[in-house]
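Side project, low priority. Logging it here so it doesn't get lost.
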Amino acid sequence: MGMESSVFRVESMTVPGGAEAIVRGGRDLFPLLPSALHGVERIGVLGWGPQGRAQALNLRDSLAGSGITVAVGLRPGSRSLDDARANGFNEDDGTLGDWLEIAASADLVILLIADAALAAHHEEIFAVLKPGATIGLSHGFLLGYLRELGRDFPAGHPVIAVCPKGMGDSVRRLYVQGATVNGAGINASIAVHADPDGHGTDRALAWSIALGSPYTFATTLSAEYHSDIVGERAILLGAVHGLVEALYRYFRIAGADPVTAYERSTETITGPIARTISKHGIPAVRAASGDSDLFDRAYSAAYRPARDLVAEIYDEVADGTELRSVILAEQRLANRPMTQIGGSPMWSHSPTVHARRSTPYRTVRYGGGSGDARGGGASGAAAGGGAGIDAVTAGVFVGTMMGQVDEFVVRGHAWSEIVNESVIEAVDSLLPYMHARDVAYMVDNCSRTARLGARRWGPRFQAVYEQIALPQLDQPADAQLIKEFLANPAHEALAAAAELRPSVDISV
């Protein structure tokens, strides 16, 4: 996808079948941000959830001394007021206030409130915008919602999106840790949905670079919406929860004690598998498993049923069914809290497993633009920091990941979007967080849209693994499927993206 900027240098990244336009980040580019924002003197960030907090802080720090003000808008009575004040935003200097007042005063209004609140209150926000103010989004939920209503964004306003490929905690932590590593952070995509004044791309790139994105690639708001919503229901969250629940039961039935079953399922995915993919690429997991035949059989058993389910999710996102299910669930839950999902017996063993780790997670190196993401060594023990890579778990997980990758390919997504939404966001943001807390904690503490999606589709993935994939492990591997896996062009695309990632220590 093309991308042109009058301020930043646009490069070509070689990917399978051609090239994609990207822009490298870096703190050396911060002096260019005011000119790239084209007249934006005040940025209003609405919301103080994980993304709102991270983006407001990163923008403020990156624009310090530029004369551009970053202000936070919160709803009356918000429980986040004290934390926003503690982080240096306050009413006295106009950097903290009522969300509608902040929206009315900003030249760029970044909408990072919860999806349900956005659906309920977007008209109020649109009504107070300054003429020509830019509307900023960090995913395409509102586009999908407006389409369901037969509406559109207000005319005359630029509509842009910057979508970090990681959770808010990662966006902030990697930005802070990257103070001595130029450009360190989480990759992001940009989309320019409406561009009446012709400056949408520059503004979006400036916003992305200010967040600390090592590299930025272009997409459309519609494509981002589809890949984001599908991904969090599949390999980023829902499928992971369904998989670890299924594997824990599988290993327990096979005779493993509870702690070992937890280690072979949850721990191996969030720890050594995630680190191996991040440092060495997806095929390296097969080598690191120590049993390529068992890996191949598990991959063969899981790939097709998992991909079929990803395709079903994609269809329901594309036709609006998934969005309608989220809205209906929000209405049901309006007056009562969402129940916790971490009540199954396996999660009681999380503290014991964490205590058994031989290497604290925060000391492990992530990323590193070594360009070796096509494959490589990395034994299971070396990659694990305590637990090795179980071949069954590895095969089923990688089969699911590649099922999502291949489905996104046939749906027409760009390679940068595919590898970021299916691989990099998982191994460099979400899985590290799950490793530090646990998968159930992540499901219970992410955005409501993601929580609802994981609750709806996680059990479907669990059933697919328990009823279709795992019973087929005694069958021979599909040699053609394994050949296609090893030769998949996604590995080349991931290697190209890995070249652009600075090396930083992820602590969570």
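Brief comment: Residues 292-318 form the longest helix (27 residues).
Revisit when time allows.
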